[in-house]
Amino acid sequence: MRYPDFTAKDFVLDEAFIQWVKAPDAQSDGFWQSWLLQYPEKAHEVAEARLFIQGLRFRRDALTPAEFSEVWQHIEGARRQPVRSSTVRRWPAVRAGWRVAAAITLLIALGVSVYHSRKAPVPLVVTTGYGQTKKVRLPDGTLVTLNANSKLTYPQHWDRGQAREVWLEGEGFFQVTKKPDARNARFITHTQLLDVEVLGTQFNVKNRRGRTQVLLTEGKVALANNALPADTSRVRLQPGDFAELSAGRQRIYKTSKMPARYSFWRDNTYTFHKTPLAEIARLLEDDYGFTVQFNDKTLAQRELSGEMPIGDVNVLLTAISESMNIRVTRHRTKLILENNPPD
Predict the structure, then answer these.
(1) CATH 1.10.287.80 fits domain 124-260
(2) Rounded to whole angstroms, how far apart are CA atoms 86 and 74?
């Protein structure tokens, strides 16, 4: 499906899109939320198409494709001109039939003025490069600390009574502002696999390599596998709980044994406790963009405990090399890890 190339008109003609707008479910919501996360530049086209379908409220199969094209041409023309009652009267009802005339008139009444005055705002996107962290203040005051190689997408504002929704790729630590108005208290972080819903709390979300991991440090959150109905997959966390969902699995794994290293990166420090070097290698690939090669496969299973600095990657590599007594050779974005030769 060539959704990235779709215009608003294409979305309006797409059966799957229509079904999502008219009768959304967990599966369709998960798909379109993930798709918008990948293509935030299409948010305006999607919003326009949704407004068309919701405002028109007529069965599309009541119009032939030719009649529908005529309706759309009138819409496009009307959007370029001020909307006047005389314009509606001049449109030919006989030529297109009463169904087309009714559709056009209804759109003028319900849709065109909205199109003219309520352009969907382009969502804001914040990204971090390799080895970079960034703090982002959301419109409601929520503070998000983005880890390296991450992306956060969120609207320019939330209306009263609207759930606060953001989309995350990579890793971020959320300090959610509590809202006294319960109707606007929900805060939902969407990832590729999980939706994390909170009412005011602090938590860490990591979404990499086909896994989403959540560590709760304060408050309460509810997790839902976005490929399943929320009422069947929902898992609640208490402070200190850690949860993980891997691609292809339905069950959310939950434990109270908190892996400390998952949130200490906020303090510019990696904290390891008997962490295999293979896992540290994945961290170097995800956060710094390296390709890591082990010349001796047994090295991958060696464990490291301690704190390592984040800011300067060269200092980090030196610390790993000296603490584990291994040689780390860097060739641009490639790292080769091997045992030091005997003295």
Answers:
(1) no
(2) 14
Nearest in space to 78 (alpha carbons), one of 116, 51, 49: 116
Choices 3.40.50.20, 3.55.50.30, 2.30.40.10, 3.20.20.60: CATH for 268-339 = 3.55.50.30
Split the chain (343 residues) into runs of 10 and give each run's mean pLDDT.
79 83 75 77 77 54 56 56 42 43 48 45 86 92 94 87 87 87 74 85 89 89 83 83 88 76 69 86 90 90 84 84 89 89 69
C-beta neighbour count of 209 within 10 angstroms: 11
User: Token pair for residue 196?
Assistant: 């994390």
From the list 241, 242, 240, 222, the residue with the least C-alpha distance to 232 is 222
Burial of 132 (0-12, 13-18, 19+ CB in 10 A): middle
Instruction: Report CA-CA distances (Å) from 41 to 4, 8, 168, 263, 290.
Output: 9, 13, 16, 31, 29
Side chain identity at 54, as an amino acid letter? Q
CB 203 within 8 Å of CB 266: no
d(CA 313, CA 322): 14
